[in-house]
Amino acid sequence: MKVALFGKNLADSSPKDLKDLIGCFKQGADTLYLHQNFKEVEKSLDILNSLSIDYFSSYEELDTSFDFLISIGGDGTFLDSTLLVRDLNIPILGINTGRLGFLSNTATSEIEEAIGCLRSGNFEIDQRSLLRLDSESNLFKAQNHALNEISILKRDTSSMISIEVKINDEMLNTYWADGLIIATATGSTAYSLSCGGPILMPGGGNFVITPIAPHNLNVRPMVIDDDVVLKIKADGRADKSLVALDSRSEELLNQEEISIQKADYQIGIVQIDKHNFINSLKAKLNWGLDRRNK
After folding, report:
1. Mean pLDDT of 67-71
2. pLDDT band at 292 (very low <50, low <70, confident <90, very high)
3. Cβ(208)–Cβ(198) under 8 Å?
4. Is the Cα torsion angle 118, 119, 120, 125 positive or negative in sign?
5. Contact by Cβ (8 Å): 146, 245
6. Which residues of 112-137 are buried (b: 16+ CB within 10 A; e: fewer)?
7. Please, which residues have CB within 8 angstroms of residue 109's CB and are 6 or more apart in sequence?
8. What is the side-by-side order of every strand in the sheet holding 258-262?
């Protein structure tokens, strides 16, 4: 088994969790690659001295020979890991050392069990769609995809912005709002949900357009097919607005058109045991819990 291990804010992770995770590969006939971020804690993890370790730092240093990438951290770390695997079709297992953990939904107490499932094949891979952004100024360059959402946001002023949206070149609406979210099914439980958007089932073939604090109260979130092309222009009192892909952002000039559509590849999320989308909803959103019974 050939595995890449990625972590971002390693100072926030327990050394014990890292040792437990890396220690699972000590007895197996596995090849382990660690992200360069781990070099800063190399001396404190004495277990590395007993393993043959290689390091990587970018997408270009990975290839299709890798069986899995393991992300240790929170959902933000998981989103960053998608920039490493991109179109290589390397499934990602998320070990949660953060808070909510919709994407990184394997607890640290389940590390040994999870690695055992990878070895035995006792897991499922949940394929998730992404969004792709194209623009004249080549915003985000090769890292122009988002697993959760693409957001257009006001900046440098408290005034609303106007956001013109076309679907397949047909005018949909001009939104007067603080911003606009185009979310995947994966992202429907994130920023979009906090702005009143619906929850979408993965694999349903839909995206959702969710306005952020719209001026017109009759403007509501809208579910759209994922095979359309959105063309969007923003304008406002400031010269620029902000466009964000998951946690990354760039300035967007007024009236610069951006195109948003489904990416031509998907991200595989490793689901072990009962860690599927429905069970994550119930666990993370406390569905089914009635505090009156306590």
Report:
1. 97
2. low
3. yes
4. positive
5. yes
6. eebbebbeeeebebbebbbbbbebee
7. none
8. 145-146, 131-135, 258-262, 230-235, 161-167, 170-177
* Cβ 97 vs Cβ 33: under 8 Å: no
Residue 267, judged by CB atoms within 10 A of its CB (0-12, 13-18, 19+), counts as: buried
**What are the CA-CA distances from residue 14 to residues 73, 100, 110, 208 (Å)?**
10, 17, 15, 37
Q: Which domains does the chain have, with CATH numbers?
A: 2-129+266-293 (3.40.50.10330), 131-262 (2.60.200.30)
| Residue whose pair of structure tokens reads 């990625």 in the numeric block | 6
Exposure on the CB side of residue 129, measured as CA atoms within 13 A: 23
Residues with catalytic function: 75
pLDDT digits (tens, 9 = 90+) for 188-219: 999 999 999 999 999 999 999 999 999 998 99
Burial class (CB in 10 A: 0-12, 13-18, 19+), 224: middle
- Residue in 151, 148, 182 with CA at minimum distance from that of residue 74: 148
- Could you tell me the pTM of the whole model? 0.92
pLDDT at 42: 62
Residue 176 and residue 235: Cα distance in Å, rounded?
Answer: 10
Residue 208: burial class (beta carbons within 10 Å; 0-12, 13-18, 19+): buried
Residues 6 or more apart whose Cβ sits within 8 Å of residue 123: 117, 270, 271, 272
